[in-house]
Amino acid sequence: MALPFMKNRATPPSMSAGKGFPSERVGELSAKGFPEGEIIDVLRKEGYGPEEIDRAMTQVLKLGVTGGGQNMSQGPSELPQLEPLEPMAQQMPQMPETSIPEQYYYPQQQQQQYSSEEYVDFLVRERVGEVDHKINEFMVKHAELEKRLAEVNNQMTALVQTRTSEEQMILSKLDSFKDVMNDVTIRMGSLEKAFKETLPALIESVRALSDLVQRMKREG
What we know:
Helix content: over 70%
Structural class: mainly alpha
Distance between the termini: 153 Å
Mean pLDDT: 69
Shape: rod-shaped
Radius of gyration: 53 Å
Number of strands: 0
Number of helices: 4
Oligomer: single chain
Strand content: under 5%
Order of helices and strands: HHHH
């Protein structure tokens, strides 16, 4: 919506991002008939941040209601001149030229509310774009992680197969060693039995030999 009191005033070029609020640039675009949404898009492309755009829009809308104010970025300046107001309906009393009629005030408030909603929508779309970018990065990393997990799984499968063959060899050797141990156990049992059977006779033989040696010593 064009602001009527800004048509007779030449505006300087817009300020650079980070050096102030582009109030005069907003007034220039509004005087050319740009709607609120297009003004926000233009200022954003020129490098202004969301806070600067919001402050500038609020300031210009406030100037449109109060009819005056100072330039926030360049210092004090002359007050803009109001154009002659259109005659009001006959049932409405005439207002002074320096006052803004009530019929103009309420649409301006509605316009300010609409611009705020549009600006919020702009911020939401910007944040959604950032979220989409983060999601895409996450999907790429997730795909890479799945690929690495598949490679690790293949390596583990090959390792398990290798260890399985080795374990089978070890188990077969253990089985053969078990058979040997069983054979040794059987033989040890046989030797123990034979030793138990021959031990008493061996003891008696040793004792008889010992007695014989003692008699031979006495007789000699």
